[in-house]
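Retro notes, structure queue

What went well: the backlog is down to a handful. What didn't: a couple of records were mislabeled last round, so from now on we paste the full input next to the output in the thread. Example, using Sulfhydryl oxidase from Mytilinidion resinicola:
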Amino acid sequence: PPDIEQLGRASWTLLHSITAAYPSSPSLAKQTETRNFLSLLSKLYPCHTCASDFQTWLKEDQNAPRVSSREEFGRWMCEAHNAVNVKLGKERFDCDRWEERWRTGWRE
Ligand code: FAD
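Corresponding output:
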């Protein structure tokens, strides 16, 4: 399998890019799909200790996915990423800047 760091960088790029492209006012169906996606991701992520810890984190009430708008979902993903940063002894990212990093600075 690809190494855990390379897999992680690629995965965070995908995940933050999904939040950047998320609607400001998603339909209820889209919100449900998004929750299902995150739940499946936590089961299928191809690093088993990563997946297992992410599942545990997701199950805590205060970490339930917030998917009712792009702004909320982007911040939620930033917090999820920070939880992994803290676990690995990396710096926390300032979540006031998630959009600058992943949306406004990003052009096709
Ligand atoms: P990354 O953490 O990959 O970040 C990439 C870029 O995102 C950074 O350069 C920065 O510009 C930006 N960024 C950083 N933090 C944030 C944030 N909070 N919000 C928005 N943008 C941010 N690795 C393990 O060794 N053990 C694990 O248990 C583990 N679990 C993981 C679980 C998941 C769900 C994922 C997706 C990855 C996991 N990883 C794990 C991988 C780990 O998070 C990193 O991707 C990897 O260590 C490479 O780190 P990096 O320093 O290159 O930057």
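Agreed that this is the format going forward. Reviewer comment attached to the example: The chain has one domain: 4-104.
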